């Protein structure tokens, strides 16, 4: 007799998971741009290594977030959602920077990669990505409250990049992307 309730529950779970909707098309470009932004963290870390400046730059973070929030109405996004999203992007970027700097200190040197200028080259790239991220966040916004949103993100983050640091940073960058209750 106990077997029937268990079978009913198992059947319900299997049926529900079999009919789970795929992630919306708007998710892939957003995640791709987030990854692109995270890749720039490598260059930022090199710049900070060379200059000796700290990873934490609260003034710059405030400027980036304020700039994004100022553009929020043009993309029909709430100031709160934009602030939360870009705070997560910055935190993820810093995570990559801290990890690289720690590795380079342990090795006694940084890679011999080209060093683009932080102010003249890297920040303009980040500013350009900011507008693309805003548009893609706006495109994805209708799906943020979907109960399947956390599942879509978990699957995308699992199948995305294979580098552990980049994967962790991607998870951090998308941690608040879904508004659905968990």
Automatic annotation (TrEMBL):
It catalyses: chorismate = prephenate. It is an enzyme of class 5 (isomerase). Its EC number is 5.4.99.5. One of its GO terms (biological process) is salicylic acid biosynthetic process. InterPro entries: Chorismate_II_sf (IPR036263), Chorismate_mutase-related (IPR051331), Chorismate_mutase_periplasmic (IPR008240), CM_dom_sf (IPR036979), CM_II_prokaryot (IPR002701). One of its GO terms (molecular function) is chorismate mutase activity. Pfam families: CM_2. Residues 1-20 form the signal peptide. Keywords: Isomerase, Signal. Pathway: Metabolic intermediate biosynthesis; prephenate biosynthesis; prephenate from chorismate: step 1/1. Residues 1-101 form the Chorismate mutase domain. It comes from the Bacteria. Coiled coil: none annotated. Catalyzes the Claisen rearrangement of chorismate to prephenate. PANTHER family: CHORISMATE MUTASE, SECRETED CHORISMATE MUTASE. This is Chorismate mutase. The lineage of its organism: Bacteria, Pseudomonadati, Pseudomonadota, Gammaproteobacteria, Pseudomonadales.
């Amino acid at each position: 007799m106990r077997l029937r309730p268990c079978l009913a529950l198992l059947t319900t779970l299997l049926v529900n998971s079999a009919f789970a909707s795929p992630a919306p098309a708007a998710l892939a470009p957003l995640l791709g741009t987030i990854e692109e932004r995270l890749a720039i963290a490598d260059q930022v870390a090199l710049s900070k290594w060379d200059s000796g400046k700290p990873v934490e730059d609260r003034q710059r973070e405030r400027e980036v977030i304020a700039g994004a929030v100022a553009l929020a109405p043009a993309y029909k996004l709430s100031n709160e959602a934009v602030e939360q999203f870009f705070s997560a992007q910055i935190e993820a970027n810093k995570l990559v920077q801290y990890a690289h700097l720690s590795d380079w200190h342990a090795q006694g040197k940084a890679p011999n990669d080209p060093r683009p200028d932080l102010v003249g080259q890297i920040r303009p790239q980040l500013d350009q990505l900011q507008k693309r991220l805003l548009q893609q966040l706006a495109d994805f916004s209708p799906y943020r409250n979907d109960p399947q949103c956390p599942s879509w993100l978990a699957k995308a983050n699992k199948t995305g990049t294979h580098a552990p640091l980049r994967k962790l940073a991607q998870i951090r960058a998308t941690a608040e992307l879904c508004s659905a209750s968990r």
